[in-house]
Amino acid sequence: MGVSGSGKSTVGPLLAQRLMVPFLEADDVHPAANRAKMAAGHPLDDEDRRPWLRSLADWIREATDAGRGGVVACSALKHEYRDLFRRAGAGVWFLCLALDRATADRRVTGRVDHFMPARLVDSQYAALEPLRPDEPGLTVDATAAPQAIVEAAVRALHRSR
Fold first, then answer.
1. Are 106 and 8 in contact (CB under 8 A)?
2. C-alpha closest to that of 63 among 79, 83, 85
3. CB count in 10 Å sphere of residue 73
4. Of the residues 32, 43, 144, 156, which has the fewest C-beta atoms closer than 10 A?
5. Mapping DSSP to helix (H, G, I), strand (E, B) and coil, where does residue 47 land?
6. 137 φψ region: left (φ > 0), alpha (ψ -120 to 50), beta (else)
7. 139 bridge partner residues
8. Cβ proximity of 89 and 60 under 8 Å
9. Among residues 131, 15, 133, which one has the least CA distance to residue 82?
10. Beta-ladder partners of 98
11. Helix pair angle (146-160, 8-19), 10° resolution
12. Are residues 113 and 39 in contact, defined by beta-carbon separation less than 8 angstroms?
């Protein structure tokens, strides 16, 4: 989890591979209307996000029910969104990729062929609610090397089980 540009799409597949579980890129599940809204420079609101979040929760529920687990790369900016995911599957654990605004802006500006424009990064920081003590997970510096982040996540995840 984290703001746009924090490295979710880079770290997520590496973590899934390391854990030998399926990976889901949440951006790929966004309805076309959400993608178009963001591409036009308008941030999503909770109403826009609701069906998208429900579809992600369904994926988590299916993965949990099947006993296979999985990794989802999703912004999961608000506590209420993460609660939805926690209700969907036992053992949901969050890896929060913390990143400063300037680095997020630089990373998002440098992307090609992505629907999320850099001018929306501020709206993500406005919505971001850091992990709370009651939420299982780990917050890491998203400027660290992706493989180092994966190793830290795996160690913390195993300690939490």
1. no
2. 85
3. 25
4. 32
5. helix
6. left
7. 96
8. yes
9. 131
10. 141
11. 50
12. no
Residue-wise pLDDT for 39-76, tens only, equals 787 888 889 989 999 999 999 999 999 999 999 999 99
Residue type, 96: C
Sequence spans of domains, the chain: 8-160
Q: What is the pTM of this model?
A: 0.89
91: CB partners within 8 A, 6+ apart: 64, 69, 161
| Residues 110, 122: Cα–Cα separation, whole Å | 16
pLDDT digits (tens, 9 = 90+) for 133-149: 999 999 999 999 999 99
Q: Which of 34, 82, 94 is nearest to 56 (CA)?
A: 82
The single-letter code of the amino acid at 40 is A
Find the angle CA(83)-CA(19)-CA(23) to the nearest 5 degrees.
Answer: 60
Contact (Cβ atoms closer than 8 angstroms) between residue 16 and residue 152: no
Query: What does the alpha-carbon distance between residue 91 and residue 71 come to, in Å, rounded to a whole number?
Result: 12
Tokens at 47, concatenated: 């109403």
What is the C-alpha to C-alpha distance for residues 12 and 10, in angstroms, rounded to an integer?
Answer: 6
